[in-house]
Design a protein that fits this description.
- The structure holds 2 protein chains of 2 kinds.
- Chain A contains 8 helices and no strands.
- Chain A is mostly helical.
- Chain A has one domain: MetI-like fold, CATH 1.10.3720.
- Chain A is flat and about 75 Å long.
- The model of chain A has no long low-confidence stretch (mean pLDDT about 95).
- By secondary structure, chain B is mostly helical.
- Chain B contains 9 helices and no strands.
- The chains are: A mainly alpha, B mainly alpha.
- The interface of A and B includes residues 156, 176, 181 and 185 of A.
Chain lengths: ~220, ~220
């Protein structure tokens, strides 16, 4: 029987790049869609606002695992072939966009009313008001919680293991089946996640402290 | 699209789905209850404990918050039994959830403790309130009020995350769904129905939590 040695460790470590890649894809996709969600959520159009509220409620109010299952098992039913990589990418993108959209809504709404009114008084249309007045200011306060959310994205990618995508957690499962040394295997897997996530958590906390100092000045 | 939806087999299995829903609620409530106890002890240790204890609690919090729940679950279900602990999938799932929630809730409870300024207690004394009154109205209610929103949204996150325990077949709603899929092959229909059940649970709990806040923790409007 194999024991959990250097080669097994390398296998797990190499699988971590898929975790990183999936996180980046989900974060990039989540950012694009999330921006649309946040803008719709703060829009003046009632129908658009209602739609985005429903979207956020749907993705934040149901388990990520079920969203993953629905896309992975639902797509073939609708006639699209899908592999675990795409299913995980799409599910994590949609899920992140709802959470990021809600985070950024808070940041957009935190911009003082007077700024909006000033932009309106200057006759700026919605797009220009957002682009030149609101978003640059909202961006500043949005950075710390967004970095913090990145940790959730990295952790969320572990669920892709359940539909058979060989990222860090799945690689751990495979090595556990080969070596029967779960204590070692899952400690190493947990440690790699920790090494990925902890710096992000520290960075988020640091940015938040710096921002609160900046705001209190 | 040539697929014909058949929800019949799903609705036929409603007693199972109901049982699974109940198990998920039960699991989440037990985890919340014990997780809060862990959190209160840890928060107290963090605020008032000696330095090594504080360091230990911080390590626990950071470790849990920076690793996925799924890996923690595998740790409790596969790794700990390898060292001699014997427990069922349900117990392993419950323990993993308690340990997970405990870390998140510690920070919330600590924030609640630290949200009461000393001057507020002194103000209560100056108003000649009794010790019980001070504890109830000046310390407990504002502290609960401060942590209540974060704590209840943490509960909902926990309930949704509990679907992950289905990978070790801990009899929660998602486990039941996965079993039903392997019996009926109606995967899409079953996952749609179960997702809707989770959504309803989220909406109902959010509503109930909001009403409890209005009933017991809200102050009259300052007008």
């Amino acid at each position: 029987m194999r024991s959990f040695g250097y080669n097994e460790f390398l296998y797990v470590l190499e699988a971590a790049r898929w975790t990183v890649l999936l996180s980046l894809v989900a974060f990039a996709g989540g950012t694009l869609v999330g921006l649309v969600v946040a803008l719709s959520r703060t829009s003046e159009n009632k129908a658009v606002r209602a739609l985005s509220i429903g979207y956020i409620q749907l993705f934040r109010g149901t388990p990520l695992l079920l969203q993953l299952f629905l896309i992975f098992f639902g797509a073939p039913v609708m006639g699209w072939e899908i592999n675990p990589w795409w299913a995980a990418g799409i599910a994590l993108t949609l899920n992140s966009s709802a959470f990021l959209g809600e985070i950024w809504r808070g940041c957009i709404e935190a911009i003082p009313r007077g700024q909006w009114e000033a932009a309106e008084a200057l006759g700026l249309s919605f797009i220009w008001k957002m682009r030149d007045v609101v978003l640059p200011q909202a961006l500043k306060i949005a950075v710390p919680p967004t970095v913090g959310y990145l940790v959730q994205v990295v952790k969320g990618t572990s669920l892709a293991a359940i539909i058979g995508f060989t990222e860090l957690t799945r690689a751990g499962q495979i090595m556990n089946n080969v070596t029967f040394q779960p204590l070692w295997v899952f400690s190493v897997v947990a440690l790699i996640y920790f090494v990925l996530c902890w710096p992000l958590s520290l960075l988020a906390a640091y940015l938040e402290r710096r921002l609160s100092v900046g705001l209190s000045r | 699209m040539s697929y014909s939806f058949q929800f019949g087999p799903v609705f036929h299995a409603w007693p199972l789905l109901l049982q699974g829903t109940w198990n998920t609620i039960q699991l989440s409530f037990l985890a919340m209850l014990f997780g809060l106890l862990v959190a209160i002890v840890c928060a107290w240790g963090k605020v008032a404990g000696p330095r090594p204890l504080r360091w230990l609690i911080n390590a626990y919090i950071e470790l849990i918050r920076n690793t996925p729940f799924l890996v923690q679950l595998f740790f409790f279900y596969f790794a700990l039994p390898a060292t001699g602990v014997r427990w069922s999938a349900y117990t392993a799932a419950l323990v993993a959830m308690i340990v997970n929630l405990g870390a998140y809730a510690t920070e919330i409870v600590r924030a609640g403790i630290e949200s009461i300024p000393k001057g507020q207690i002194e103000a209560g004394q100056a108003l000649n309130l009794s010790r019980v009154e001070i504890f109830r109205f000046v310390i407990l209610k504002p502290a609960l009020r401060a942590i209540y929103p974060a704590l209840t949204s943490q509960f909902i996150l926990l309930m949704l995350a509990s679907s992950v325990v289905s990978v070790i077949s801990a009899d929660d709603l998602t486990s039941i769904a996965v079993n039903l899929v392997s019996q009926t092959f109606r995967s899409f229909e079953i996952y749609i129905v179960v997702t809707v059940i989770y959504l309803l649970l989220t909406l109902i709990f959010s509503y109930v939590f909001r009403r409890i806040f209005q009933w017991g923790l809200d102050y009259p409007d300052r007008r």
